[in-house]
Amino acid sequence: MRNRFASSLTHEGSGDRMMLLRAGVDAVKLHPVTGTGAGRFRAGEWVPDTAPIAVREQRGKAHNQLLSIAAELGFPGLVFFLMLLVAVARRMTLAHPAGVAGVGALCFFLLLSAVHDPLFQAPFSMALVLAFAVGVRGGLEAAVSRSA
Hints:
By secondary structure, the chain is mainly alpha-helical. The protein is 67% helix and 0% strand. Helix 2 (11-30) packs across helix 4.
């Protein structure tokens, strides 16, 4: 794990990341409306043949969650996803501890999404949905207690 983080500070590590990001941008440019299809974007298929083998065989995404979503679903899919996040966030409240946890999970997700594809990892996705559910429940409990 330590080596992986250390490699992100090297030219090779950041260069590989830049190639993956560029692959996502290229896919969005070619398919801005429909994307490549849900689950069909593979960054390794969008890099030049001269890319390091680790990049060409990379089975992941673009190292940016929102860019990966746009590459797969186009801009309409990205807008829909962001609207979904806004709808979830609006149902959370900072007046309840569970709502604070949900908002914290959302902020963590957005920050991590800038440098990684957290939804590509199943355990993270499940934990995120659970945290959002707890946060929304806190918002509902706060609304019920205010109306009572």
